[in-house]
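Bug #77: duplicate submission created two jobs. Keeping one. Sequence:
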Amino acid sequence: MSREDELISVVVPVYHVETYIERCVESLLQQTYSNLEIILVDDGGDDRCPQICDEYAKKDARIKVIHKKNGGLSDARNAGMRAASGKYLAYIDSDDYIQPDTYEKMIYALKKENADIAVCNYEAVTNPYELAEYKDAIMAAMLKGTKRHVESMPEKNEKGNVQTGQSHQK
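Kept job's structure:
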């Protein structure tokens, strides 16, 4: 089985973020792990976000858009989760963006550790020209059985090499 056989559904709640949404979606489209279903949940904003979401859906078949009445962040995430068809589920806030290899590393860690959930570190960006690392990207495996999880994924050692976090039974 190829590492890209398993679909990741990425839920992006969208509300009044027209300044940031394009950077977020572009970071998803540039992932090295490309078997993604990107679900943009327009939570009823009155800015240009609904149109921006629709434009992205026309450009890339991996993008689905849900337009709904405003119900708040949790309601938007739940709407995206209900529409998801992937084996894995990931959430990213629409004002955040991720490194191009984020999901590739998270899938690798999930499989290596036989884990249900992978949570990664993030870097807050105060300068808009800096590249954030792994900010608020949380992927939960939609699996049953094991109660193992992986913490602090991925870490870098003093040489800058990526190392996986520790896994343990709960």
